[in-house]
């Protein structure tokens, strides 16, 4: 898990992509407090349980890229000229599977499904070509460095075989390739350097690299796996003892710590509400933290004002890391 996360973080930093997650939710007057409490706790016969299992309203997953507009000049030593492009908007549906109750906690696996939202993406399409640092190259290098450090000496020689074309450091790929379909890593060459790197990779594939079917090649993408396989397990509080704690994540992958940030630091603690189980009776003073496994961290929500949605009074909280 450690190296998986490192690969994710590496991929993110090289991609220079920012995923913005904005959220807001409803504040409910506490007249029917008792009913709401019974409705919202995580239990088979609680009215709100089906929407915890299967979120009907998608979250918006916004992806931004920094397009390198002068890759050839950068290769000659000039500074890159970056242009932010986005958002590419995806609807993200979350569902919980294989849940089991244990006292006041529930353990489950999370399956996410992403669908491109053409309307909200405006003029941006999934086949737009973006020039960024070659994420597949960086991902492969990171994998080899982790699993077979000696292999890294072959890596430079292997690059022209693994990534066809002349400027292999910057690569134009479609948004869909970078995020889901994958940028191809060619393993059909018989050159020694290439076969060494390819063999080393087979033994340990991070979630971002997968072997392509009926082919010796691999593909690197950021979210193919997110859309395909469930993650977890997550353990969170059911809110039976105290409804204010419903949805608080207390363990991820069987651990209290993420093991990504500094050991024993607050950053490294698994903490924050599950997005689909925010507690009832939210108030502006509340310390609203959300657990976001995508970035191995908790996001803090800052109260930024009141508003109205369909005549219902709402509190708006805005994410700030
Ligand atoms: C990104 O920059 C490249 C030049 O490096 C350009 O060809 C491409 O059209 C740009 N992509 C978008 C979506 O603007
Ligand atoms: C995610 O997977 C579903 C099928 O499980 C598919 O219909 C959908 O197109 C995939 N999303 C993306 C963005 O590839
Ligand atoms: C590997 O496959 C690519 C794409 O199919 C092809 O262009 C290339 O020539 C192949 N390389 C070798 C050494 O066969
Ligand atoms: C791979 O090969 C199998 C058997 O020949 C075939 O059924 C399958 O459709 C192929 N998959 C792809 C992605 O081409
Ligand atoms: C319920 O939990 C909240 C938040 O952790 C805490 O402030 C409150 O005192 C608790 N209530 C009871 C009755 O323990
Ligand atoms: C973290 O906490 C554990 C258990 O309390 C302790 O054994 C370990 O030495 C701590 N690590 C650091 C770096 O403080």
From TrEMBL:
Ranges annotated as spanning the membrane: 12-32
Primary subcellular site in the record, as a coarse category: membrane
GO cellular component: cytoplasm; plasma membrane
Record key words, sorted: Cell membrane, Glycoprotein, Membrane, Transmembrane, Transmembrane helix
Subcellular location: Cell membrane
Domain of life where this protein originates: Eukaryota
InterPro entries registered for this protein in UniProt: CD36_fam (IPR002159)
GO MF, one example: scavenger receptor activity
Pfam family, any one: CD36
Protein name as catalogued: Sensory neuron membrane protein 2b
Organism, as annotated: Subpsaltria yangi
Phylogenetic classification of the source organism: Eukaryota, Metazoa, Ecdysozoa, Arthropoda, Hexapoda
């Amino acid at each position: 898990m450690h190296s998986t996360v490192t690969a994710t973080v590496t991929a993110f930093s090289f991609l220079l992509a920012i995923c913005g997650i904005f959220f807001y939710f409803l504040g409910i007057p506490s007249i029917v407090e008792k009913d709401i409490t019974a409705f919202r706790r995580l239990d088979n016969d609680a009215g709100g349980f089906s929407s915890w299992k299967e979120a009907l309203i998608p979250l918006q997953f916004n992806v931004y890229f920094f397009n390198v507009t002068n890759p050839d000049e950068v290769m000659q030593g000039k500074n890159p000229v970056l242009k932010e492009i986005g958002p590419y908007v995806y609807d993200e549906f979350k569902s919980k599977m294989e849940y089991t109750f244990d006292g006041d906690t529930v353990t489950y696996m999370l399956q996410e499904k992403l669908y491109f939202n053409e309307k909200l993406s405006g003029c941006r399409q999934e086949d737009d070509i973006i020039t960024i640092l070659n994420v597949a190259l960086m991902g492969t290098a990171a994998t080899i460095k982790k699993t077979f450090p000696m292999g890294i000496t072959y890596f430079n020689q292997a690059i022209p075989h693994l990534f066809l074309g002349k400027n292999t450091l910057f690569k134009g790929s479609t948004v869909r390739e970078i995020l889901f379909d994958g940028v191809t890593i060619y393993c059909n060459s018989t050159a020694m350097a290439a076969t060494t790197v390819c063999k080393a990779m087979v033994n340990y594939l991070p979630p971002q690299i997968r072997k392509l079917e009926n082919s010796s090649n691999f593909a690197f993408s950021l979210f193919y796996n997110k859309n395909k396989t469930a993650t977890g397990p997550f353990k969170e509080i059911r809110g039976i003892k105290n409804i204010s704690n419903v949805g608080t994540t207390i363990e991820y992958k069987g651990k209290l710590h993420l093991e990504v940030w500094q050991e024993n630091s607050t950053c490294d603690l698994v903490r924050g509400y599950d997005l689909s189980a925010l507690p009832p009776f939210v108030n502006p003073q509340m310390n609203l933290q959300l657990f976001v496994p995508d970035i191995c961290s908790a996001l803090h929500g800052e109260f930024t004002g009141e508003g109205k949605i369909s005549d219902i009074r709402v509190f708006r909280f805005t994410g700030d890391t």
